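Minutes, project check-in
Item: structure for the 393-residue chain
Input as provided by the requester:
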Amino acid sequence: MARQNYFFTSESVSEGHPDKVCDRISDAVLDAFLAVEPEARVAAETFATTNRVVIGGEVGLSDRDMLRDYMDRIDQIARDCIRDIGYEQEKFHWNTVEVTNLLHEQSAHIAQGVNAAGNKDEGAGDQGIMFGYAVNETPELMPAPIHYAHAILRRLAEVRKDGTEPTLGPDAKSQLTLRYENGKPVGVTSVVLSTQHFDETMSSDDVRDVVEPYIRATLPTDWLNDETEWWVNPTGKFVIGGPDGDAGLTGRKIIVDTYGGAAAHGGGAFSGKDPTKVDRSAAYAARYLAKNVVAAGLAHRCTIQLSYAIGVAKPLSIYCDTHGTGRVAEEAIESAVSGLMDLSPRGIREHLGMNKPIYQRTAAYGHFGRAPEADGGFSWEKTDLVEALKKAV
């Protein structure tokens, strides 16, 4: 029997966090190549520090002349990301930062394993295991701690960028501890927020005065009370932020990107990877399947695991765990999902429409729990398998 009464904590980081700056640039590079060739192969990594951004990895386009042309655009792509995030500080400014592009053509040995040829189906871009998770704690079927940790930072970014709160800077982190009773979140025991600010005279109390109304408006009204602990900028001033304050790297916030530690993670990062890489596409597919299972009322919680071998099209295994909340056998769910969706890399991409420039928007505030968008963004959040699942089990 799973515990019913407990405390659970998750954290989020803003789009201006050094690692998220790098995720954003890597995904912007990916989008740029997918916009000109939907089958582009991209594995872009970004490193950022004081006055410096370095982008490396590999790219594959069928037209090598076009590849060379787009390589020349990487510098501006990075600067546009930094400008939109809001960095114009002395030692990290979108217009003066030094950008080094070390991207190169994709390895032919990797390509031969992934590409379809003759009687060989297109294979997975790497081996690995991927997890998807859903739980009926929020309307988005996400764990509540990470969902609201994201929501707080997203709201603060909105009021910073629209000019309502010009004292706030781009770099921020949030953390929420929720109290669970009978398996459901019922209150916030602690709020932790550290946010960059431009006014050097501001104390921690001053920053709290700015951010607290937005935090209260974001959280359910009955979750905060006189016993809730508030820790806003607990170390004091936070003026130097972003890659000038701490180096950033693509792929270092994989728990923030997924379920805040409430569910398993296969280990692979998402940002900068095209959807032939199952680290990304199969993790999205697993979330899609788990969410549809919960939305169909087949379980209150669901974890789906998929596994792959490089160059092999079909998943090696499909595993379902409903954590004791299932209304049907887990084996029945495994059989149903495998029959309703082609879980080969190409099958996933085609089912979810993933060969599009839709990834830059995923780089901050979570890859899951977002609303599906008209252009195909967050297609893995749709619940269009509900009726088919009910019939299949």
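Outcome recorded: The CA atoms of residues 34 and 334 lie 32 Å apart.
No further action items on this chain.
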